[in-house]
């Protein structure tokens, strides 16, 4: 019983900013990695930004310098600050977590997705 709850999506004009949040809850022993993916209509889901197991960050080339991922380990929350948004950033953004459940089972979880729409 693990849930990832996302918030913060919406409609914004090009050049604007949005901040996404994702909080993990439930029977969690530890979180190995956590991050954000996105899927635009007709395209495959792709990595946007993520913390790796070692604590470093990975960003898609298309968002480097514009998006910043951060986290609050105590709250089991990861954030995605998106600045200088472009119409091509329009997609459903999904939170992903690689974690150990309380039963010490490793598994991957997805949030329900939050829509980000950038108008030109």
Provide a quick synopsis of the model.
This protein is an all-beta fold and 120 residues long. 0% of the residues lie in helices and 62% in strands.
**Termini Cα gap:** 40 Å
Number of helices: 0
Strand content: over 45%
**Gyration radius over CA:** 14 Å
Order of helices and strands, N to C? Answer: EEEEEEEEEEE
Approximate helicity band: under 10%
Mean pLDDT value: 96
Uncertain ranges: none
Task: Characterize the main sheet.
Answer: 7 strands, mixed
DSSP summary, beta strand count? 11
Structural class label: mainly beta
Shape: elongated
What characteristics describe this protein?
120 residues; four-stranded antiparallel sheet; seven-stranded mixed sheet
Commentary on this structure:
By secondary structure, the chain is mainly β. It is 0% helix and 62% strand. The protein has strands at 2-7, 10-13, 18-26, 28-39, 46-51, 57-59, 67-72, 77-82, 91-101, 106-110, 114-119. Strands 2, 4, 5, 6, 9, 10 and 11 form a seven-stranded mixed β-sheet that branches. The protein has a four-stranded antiparallel β-sheet with strand order 1-3-8-7, with no helix packed on it. A hairpin with a 5-residue loop joins strand 5 and strand 6 (57-59). The chain is elongated, with a radius of gyration of 14 Å. The N and C termini lie far apart (40 Å). 28% of the residues are buried.
């Amino acid at each position: 019983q693990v849930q990832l709850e996302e918030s913060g999506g919406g409609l914004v004009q090009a050049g604007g900013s949005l901040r996404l949040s994702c909080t993990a809850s439930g029977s969690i022993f530890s979180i190995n990695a956590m991050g954000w993916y996105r899927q635009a209509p007709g395209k495959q889901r792709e990595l946007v930004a993520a913390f790796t197991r070692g604590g470093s960050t990975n960003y898609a080339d298309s968002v480097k310098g514009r998006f910043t991922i951060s986290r609050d380990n105590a709250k089991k929350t990861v954030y995605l600050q998106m600045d200088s948004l472009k119409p091509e950033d329009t997609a459903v953004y999904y939170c992903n977590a690689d974690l150990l459940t309380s039963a010490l089972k490793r598994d991957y979880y997805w949030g329900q997705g939050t829509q980000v729409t950038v108008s030109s």
